[in-house]
Design brief:
Elements (H helix, E strand, L loop, with lengths): L3 E10 L6 H19 L3 E9 L3 H10 L3 H18 L6 E4 L3 H16 L3 E11 L4 E3 L17 E10 L5 H10 L4 E2 L1 H12 L5 E2 L1 E2 L7 E2 L2 E6 L1 H6 L1 H4 L9 H5 L4 E5 L3 H15 L7 E4 L2 E3 L2 E2 L10 H8 L1 H11 L6 E3 L1 H31 L11 H22 L3 H22 L1 H4 L6 H22 L4 H10 L39
Parallel strand pairs: 1-2, 1-12, 2-3, 7-13, 12-13, 14-16
Antiparallel strand pairs: 4-5, 4-6, 6-8, 9-11, 10-11, 14-15
Helix pairs in contact: 2-3, 5-6, 11-12, 12-13, 12-15, 13-15, 13-17, 14-15, 14-17, 15-17, 17-18
The protein binds ligand ME8.
Length: 510
């Protein structure tokens, strides 16, 4: 098997319809997956839905449906959105699928056989929206410290996982592997949480039905987070160790939001340690989006619905905006004016304009036919070097999941392209027949730089990249060996580009 890359998103609860926060994680994973595919990796990109638990059961009751009816209905909304957002995943796991349920039962049985699961009694404060137990000291005015909603006191028989046993091993792993939890601020949070001491974890419930039955005890359903986290291996065929699990586990990158870091960076690794499986190489927690400065919430009725945005602005404008506007790992604000500004300035003015003017010039001066570049002067060499540098910058930025910085370095080449055209002034060269070869070389350079730019853009904006490359007479899937300067062949026929991104009127359009 060639080099492999396994990337995951959280699996989303089906009690809610997809919003911009869900789209964000999935989109980031898609960009990385597409980039790695372009670099020749065998990629497995997993997403899916989290369909068990009290929260889903309650939502189904309210809607007058069975939990599975609710899940069947909502899962379609996620899948339709991913299609519309151009998400190219390898597999979509639903926790109600047999393959998953079998894997979870096996994991539970295995951990029990290892002596890491025991039956005990639980008494603590439970927050249903977060599906989390809290000790009394953790509560703030008896409310959930995470979401500030009321908690209820629950006492129940429960299976426990001996998480405490893995405290030292987990600490040692985090300390020895600085890449394991990112960004750094999040890693520090987890380090202090683990240093404070790990309690054993309640991993079953008896107070509701909707979940996977605990093996050998019909009164218990498996705790929804134990169930959900296991998706990352059940989708690879766990407990079958040959096949996908062998090829792809441990995951290269698990992308999540900052709110679910503890589950992924503490619970999940300790389950894996107990199961004798290696830990994921990297868990990356991104920040949260607010909307026009406010927390996004159903009660404020300000939930940003990605379908509406895509219909209005186009899929690639949204893909670009979400990853460009805010450095991955930090919180950010979504506003219509910021979105429109990015579309007008980065996409219409910089990117679109360069393609437009350069494809128009080659029509006018050479009937659309690429000329052989002859002598490259200093200005040409500088521009070529800038384009080549961006290839390396994108590589190192994406290695760090710095999507915004990667886009910034691509845009530096685009701006350099517009500047190069201004400075070489092809319209002036065209007036002098003795400069015909020079003119051909200048236009070659500006088109060749864009051919590389559109390849680099293809993981971020697949449709736009395809359009751009079509105009540049380039067909075929983007691949690593096309990132080199000089592959645009003289004699290629270039088509005059239409506006890729029409400008949007700022007023009255919000
Ligand atoms: O937590 N900005 O599912 P979920 C950015 N089922 N990201 C946001 C966001 C916002 N405003 N709101 C939500 C679950 N998210 C579990 C996961 S994985 C084994 C189980 C992100 O549907 C949030 O950070 O509540 C999280 O990563 C994701 O949406 C899923 O949320």
């Amino acid at each position: 098997m060639s080099r492999t890359f396994y990337i995951t998103t959280p699996i989303y609860y089906v009690n809610d319809v997809p919003h911009i926060g869900h789209a964000y994680t999935t989109l980031a994973a898609d960009v990385l997956a597409r980039y790695k595919r372009m670099k020749g990796y065998e990629v497995f990109f997993l997403t899916g839905t989290d369909e068990h638990g009290q929260k889903v059961e309650k939502a189904a009751n309210t809607a007058g449906e069975t939990p599975l009816e609710l899940a069947d209905r909502v899962v379609k909304r996620f899948q339709a959105l991913w299609e519309k957002l151009n998400i190219n995943y390898s597999d979509f796991i639903r926790t109600t699928q047999e393959r998953h349920k079998k894997g979870v039962s096996h994991l539970f049985t295995d951990l029990m056989a290892k002596g890491d699961i025991y039956l005990g009694e639980y008494e603590d404060w439970y927050c249903t929206p977060c599906e989390t137990f809290w000790t009394e000291t953790q509560l703030i005015d008896f409310k959930c410290p995470d979401c500030n909603r009321p908690t209820e006191k629950l006492k129940e028989e429960s299976f426990f996982f001996r998480m405490s046993k893995y405290q030292e091993a987990l600490l040692a792993h985090i300390e020895a592997n600085p890449e394991f939890i990112q960004p750094k601020s999040r890693r520090n949070e987890i380090l202090s949480f683990v240093r404070e001491g790990l309690r054993d974890l309640s991993i079953s419930r008896t107070t509701f039905q909707w979940g996977i039955q605990a093996p050998g005890n019909d009164n218990h359903v498996v705790y929804v987070w134990f169930d959900a986290l296991a998706n990352y291996i059940t989708a690879l065929g766990y407990p079958e160790t040959a096949g996908k699990l062998k090829d792809f586990w441990p995951a290269d990158a698990q992308l999540i939001g900052k709110d679910i870091l503890r589950f992924h960076a503490v619970y999940w690794p300790t389950f894996l340690m107990s199961a004798g499986l290696p830990l994921p190489k990297r868990i990356f927690a991104h920040g949260w989006w607010t909307v026009e400065g406010q927390k996004m919430s159903k009660s404020l009725q300000n939930v940003v619905e990605p379908n509406m945005l895509i219909d209005k602005y186009g899929v690639d404008a949204i893909r670009y905006f979400l990853l460009r506007e805010v450095p991955f790992g930090l919180d950010g604000d979504f506003s219509h004016s910021a979105l429109i500004h990015r579309i007008n300035s980065d996409l219409a003015n910089d990117l679109g304009n360069l393609l437009n003017r350069s494809t128009a010039m080659i029509q006018k001066y050479f009937g659309g036919i690429v000329q052989a570049p002859l002598e490259m002067t200093g200005i040409d060499q500088g521009f070529k070097a800038k384009t080549e540098a961006a290839v390396n910058q994108v590589e190192s930025c994406l290695e760090e999941l710095a999507f915004s910085k990667a886009l910034q370095s691509i845009w530096e080449v685009i701006s350099a392209g517009n500047k190069y055209v201004d400075e070489t002034a092809p319209w002036a060269l065209a007036k002098d027949p003795a400069q015909k070869e020079r003119l051909g070389t200048v236009i070659y350079c500006v088109l060749e730089s864009q051919r590389i730019v559109y390849h680099l853009l293809s993981p971020f904006m697949p449709d736009t990249a395809k359009k751009g490359l079509d105009y540049l007479g380039w067909s075929g899937a983007p691949s690593e060996d096309q990132l080199q300067w000089g592959l645009l062949r003289p004699g290629t026929k270039i088509i005059k580009a239409e506006a890729l991104f029409p400008r949007i009127e700022e007023k009255g359009d919000i």
